[in-house]
């Protein structure tokens, strides 16, 4: 046995019946011939990928920056190109090379040509609203939501009704009357309402900051100048639509800038009310998106009716507008004697338009707008937001201005410069040829710089992301989608300011509180920070081979080294480490003792335990690449269930092997899992008297059980990805990665294909339309708080009394644990990037026995979920009736 005193530790000096040591060699025989180590599993993956990771990270930064900037510039440029074609009495220079190089021509677009561009602008607005409708419909069907009150519904409808009217005024009234340079500059001046709301939403503490308040006032003045400066300069009545359009559009983003910490009661009330939309937003937007399209269309028709005198041509000429039609160039002859630049004109024979040009411009606009949105969201999710999101978003208008200045300058000098790419009768509404000096000095374009700088200040929050990695879209953006006409401004204004991870209320305890603890024998830290992530790596072993044990221990030791590196950076260098975690490893060894007879009271350790002790040093030597590296003998304890061996790994984390005696405690994997859940979460946490209930709740929120099999092989990065998933969603109870089977032979090849299908198709589909039903126990991360819920851990410890219970409880314990989590409102997710490797059966008998356990347990758990589907749907956001229908179809297909 291990000893006679359960309270005293002893040195583990020698294990009887261990493999014979290598014969002692003479000093001159000092040369070795070690076997060549064949890399496989995670080691092979790491060798291949390590060199590419750094390059990929740099490439991701640069590529995302280029795509966001380029796509936003193209989106804004094509928008201005379309608005340049719908103005009345707009004359453009026509390429004379196609008619007569010795003469000059201009062209004025006929009404039928302008009609097709008006429809293209309408369709451009419809695209993001249609995407909003689809996303809202999907979320309403597959997710649980709360029915909003009538007050909530009408308030959101009222505020969302303003931007469509403003967008219609901007696109069909203002931009056609401005040259493209003024138009693109004006897009930096639609932040007036957010600026005012943000100013009055500052907390009393922030109001004491004179610098911030000063910048707020300057930004409000700068944005407000856009309301009057060009209407006063242009002397055109239509320019007074600018303040109306700007106010209506900017009012749509009030929700992101209002704060319940404001000392002003009205603003504070608005800040509290916006939280009410979170659980009903998608349901409301499934109707609001349609309403916005209707409102935009009606407003557009009204504007066209007023400006054109009639709107009948929009519908009567619809088919003809999308076909080729005649365009009449006009020859111009400058008068030698005349004043005011008067011209004599002469008509020329008509040319035919290109019917595909408007469609191509439309497709380019909506495609690049969507690409900009997707890559911008990608940058926010992987936390490269500063360089690859905020920088290109704020750089979009200056880049567009620079490109348009160059294009318009070249075209003014040579109308045929772009005739091979753009039909000669189409181009931007260019400023006059001699525009540069006059444009900057007399027309107050210098104020654009104030608009740009004020926009940067108002959206300063996009430079400092505070959300977790891989945050949900709802945590990143307020609205479900983007603005069709102002992609760069919508990305900045729609990016949430209050994106901090969820915290407990002030009365629920302090999240960052640190307190002293009575350190149990296995812990090596003297203080406890409630908000720090804690990972208990818990592996189960029985009759694993020595090589499999080594692979498992190598993975654990790599994780130990990773934790040590993060601890040194945090403690010694003083850097903040948001991904820091504490680690402790436990191995639960089934049937660890051998008895000579049933009444033997002094059992011996079996050969598998002895192999584990030898494998610890073997794995340590291989990971640290130091020959014959020894950790030292483990400390041993006698326990009521058998015994315990404790090592301190090189990174100063603990490795504890719990040796189970079959005569004292139940065997098999499920009971090992019950054992470590109750020990770590019940005894080590809930039984402590020095913690308040709120502190225990917070600790359990940030404590994770890493369930492992005794032959698993993984890298620390795989664990980090699962922890990131846990941090981004508090309702996530379990997360699993992609399992790769290892071995040789045709049966292994079949399992490789089977595993690939299961992960690429089934788990990916479940993750998308609902949630994963099974998180494999060989490599999965479980949230402690989810396991501690009523009806999870306690029920998981139930004994099987019926045959169907045995099938459900003991043949597929991993799937049953996940079923319990789902039935208690928690979600299970899948991360395809989190790779792990496990040995699969190579012989038919072992394979058959494995599937004989898996298939009945899978069927039993799915049936259990279906029988309780009504209750599960009510409490679980990820389980819906369409998802239950999907599982019924799969079950029928499996049975048949």
From TrEMBL:
InterPro entries noted in UniProt: Chitin_synth, Chs-1/2_IV_N, Nucleotide-diphossugar_trans
Any single GO CC term annotated in Swiss-Prot or TrEMBL for this entry: plasma membrane
EC number: 2.4.1.16
Topological type in the membrane: Multi-pass membrane protein
Keyword entries, A-Z: Cell membrane, Coiled coil, Glycoprotein, Glycosyltransferase, Membrane, Transferase, Transmembrane, Transmembrane helix
UniProt KW Coiled coil keyword: yes
Reaction equations catalysed: [(1->4)-N-acetyl-beta-D-glucosaminyl](n) + UDP-N-acetyl-alpha-D-glucosamine = [(1->4)-N-acetyl-beta-D-glucosaminyl](n+1) + UDP + H(+)
Region spans: Disordered: 1-27
Compartmental location: Cell membrane
GO MF term set: chitin synthase activity
Enzyme type, top EC level: transferase
BP GO annotations: chitin biosynthetic process
Polar residues: bias regions: 1-16
Transmembrane segments: 55-74, 116-134, 154-175, 181-201, 213-233, 239-258, 282-306, 359-376, 388-412, 418-436, 445-463
A Pfam family: Chitin_synth_2
Sequence similarity: Belongs to the chitin synthase family. Class IV subfamily.
Protein name stated in the entry: chitin synthase
